[in-house]
């Protein structure tokens, strides 16, 4: 059975890694192993934007030779977008998500673990779906639907729609 590696980038709270591991194991039916953290973040930082280039994290992890999801808590971007919740490289089966914009307290709401855990699971499943060859889905309830805002992330479910589940079971055709 293949495995999914969960790699903290920087200091990630252990409870969120455990929640993500449980969600990913349930969704993908694969063992999830929490790896040693990637401690060095400076190479990805862009001082002009005060953000981190997500591709640098994907590049730093992709040499590990397994399906891997990095989890960070910094603001991510890719050129041409103000921010991203995550990014995936399907060819290298490597992805990264950020908790930074998923936290309720970032929007002057009370700090709550449940909404953060649910949002993180949706984004993690979404990015790992890309590593399995899935594209974005038109169904706004499907986990593979593109989210450009927190309300869009909250609106979609953590599940694949029928069509995406069928593609996933056939290897992302």
In short:
This protein is of the alpha/beta class and 173 residues long.
Description:
32% of the residues lie in helices and 18% in strands. With 173 residues, the protein is an alpha/beta fold. It has a single domain (3-134), classed as Collagenase (Catalytic Domain). The strands form 2 sheets. It has a 5-stranded mixed β-sheet, sandwiched between helices. It has a 3-stranded mixed β-sheet with strand order 3-4-6. β7 and β8 form a beta hairpin. It is globular and about 45 Å long.
Overall shape: globular
Cα distance spanning the termini: 21 Å
Which band does the percent of strand residues land in?
15-25%
Q: What is the level-2 CATH architecture name?
A: 3-Layer(aba) Sandwich
Give me the secondary-structure topology.
Layout: E1 3-8, H1 14-28, E2 31-34, E3 45-46, E4 51-53, H2 54-61, E5 67-72, E6 76-77, E7 86-89, E8 94-98, H3 113-131, H4 150-155, H5 162-169
Parallel strand pairs: 1-2, 1-5, 4-6, 5-8
Antiparallel strand pairs: 3-4, 7-8
Helix pairs in contact: 1-3
Observed structural traits:
single chain; 173 residues; alpha/beta; Collagenase (Catalytic Domain); three-stranded mixed β-sheet; 18% strand
